[in-house]
Amino acid sequence: MVVAMKSDGHLPKQILLTCDTELGEVSRHFDAQDSFDFFVEGKYDGQQVGFDFLNQTASDFGAKMTHFLDVYPAKNGLEKRFSNLVERALNQGHEVELHTHPSWQFDERRIFMFQYSEDEQREILAHGIKLLQKWSGKQPLAHRAGGYGADNRIFKLLSEFEIRFDSSYYFRYRNCPMEGLALNKTQAIEGVVEVPITVFDRQQRYAPGFKKAQRTQLDLRMGLSIKEIEAVLDQSPPGAILVFFFHSFNFLQIPFNSKTRKFGKPAIDRQLMESYRSMLKMISGRNDCSFATFGDLRMAEHEPFFPKVSVSASFSQKIKSKWQIWKGIDHV
Question: What is the pTM assigned to this prediction?
């Protein structure tokens, strides 16, 4: 897919659909095959709403999905399944890039890349790149650190491995210690282009005169409406790269009690599945936007930007959410 110049001479807003395709940290102590079925393939209750659903739905609207694939659990009989996953994605025209959750192969106690020395990170990257090259027959173009947990050392290391893009930077996120990067703007460091997670200012109105600002990414699981996403697109400059965020288990509601370390009964989130379709339909119908992948991104000069969106919010829902957090109940 080539991002074409608009008739007015401006680049369109470039829409990157990115998916962290992974088993996830919480699945470590479960059967590996079952975890792959559930967290990657999205298999539940006789249906499959993960990897293939994300890809096929994107294809239906002329889009391609970029899978940041956590390759590090590829052991104990799982390597063939990972290889098959990569083959399926590429055959469908989608993109597979490197996602680093090093704790699966290296140290369970250190789950973020920045917790490792440069030499250790070099070893982690070499291992992941070797696997992706083996399965895909080509060099990965991009990298994303698990949990956004990379610091500025990652740029030098990615450059050594000739990886052209990173997409780990999440503005002021607690697990992301990167410094000196622009808000919602690409920039080159050590020859590597940082394509940051797109964030916006979500102003939640609870009552007249009472609101709370929340820095939010373009992730449907945050409860975003199509109107909110449209507002973000409207406020973004021509040529901007907007990074949308998914997980391979995006459409499964997975209650998890962080205190007992136990899962509740999952459910398929059909409303979210429909929101995904509606979002893609809306974007595909805009003449100022174009779906893109890392392989065809074009860099445009623009100032950092921070869209602001105002939404109604519920006090009762907020209290319920706080109560669940206090009880240790969360969703993966």
Answer: 0.92
